[in-house]
Amino acid sequence: YTRLFENINQSENIDYSSLNTQTFALLLAKYKALLLRSDENEAPFTVNDFGNFISNLGLEKYPYVGGAAPRRIIPVDAGDDLIYTANEAPPDQLIPFHHELAQVKNPPVYLFFYCDQPSETGGETALLDSTVVYRYVNDTFPEFMEKLKTYGARYIRTIPAEDDKESPIGRSFYNTYQVKTKDELEEKLNATEKLEYEWLDDGSLKVCTT
Questions:
Q1: Which residue of 47, 109, 185, 192 is 20 to 30 Å from 118, comparing CA positions?
Q2: Is Oxidoreductase among the key words of this record (predicted)?
């Protein structure tokens, strides 16, 4: 198959099967975001194609641990823990702009999105250039930015014991950290640098990361 990579103003026809890690990184550095889709005369780009495409890039696999969104795994030929749903919360729930897994020590370098059935209305995955946001905040609120550079940011989360699928950040602490018991969870948290935690009276977990 030949796939099309494009941004708003430019496009390139590229044989996706020939892409490797270096070529992909160069394209992403050039355009910042890439759109991959089937040509009108070709067979649909399936979720299995998507999984194979990601796997064939040769990137280091990222373990999804620490995320807040309730998600489920989409099994594909390339692996059973490679692709997740974006969010299991109801569609009326607002998901604000954010850096994926910014609250963990090693957030992912790349993000991939796949759409199997486009929504009739809305449904877009909006992207924002963080460098533009940084320049705006730095120019508009220089004192705040100076404090941020000096002291860093602190994330405080309250994580429930059970998944709350009515919330876009309602993932339980069992699924967040991929554990089955509280003892296993505490062992994992105690081994994490710059992390503090506290068990609350209602059984939820308060986590602070810097």
A1: 109
A2: yes
Residue 39 CA to residue 45 CA, distance in Å, equals 9
Q: Decide: helix, strand or coil at residue 142.
A: helix
**CATH number attached to the domain at 46-209:** 3.60.130.10
- The ranges assigned to domains in the chain are 46-209
Lookup: tokens for 169: 């950040």
Q: How many degrees, rounded to 5, is the angle at CA 194 between CA 82 and CA 164?
A: 50
The structure tokens listed for 73 are 């795994």
Interatomic CA distance for residues 18 and 86, integer angstroms: 27
Residue written as tokens 């089937």?
A: 38
Inter-residue contact 51 to 75 (CB < 8 Å)? no
pLDDT tens digit sequence for 69-99: 888 889 999 888 889 998 888 888 888 888 9
DSSP code of 16? Answer: G
**How many Cα atoms are found within 13 Å in the side-chain-facing hemisphere of 58?**
9
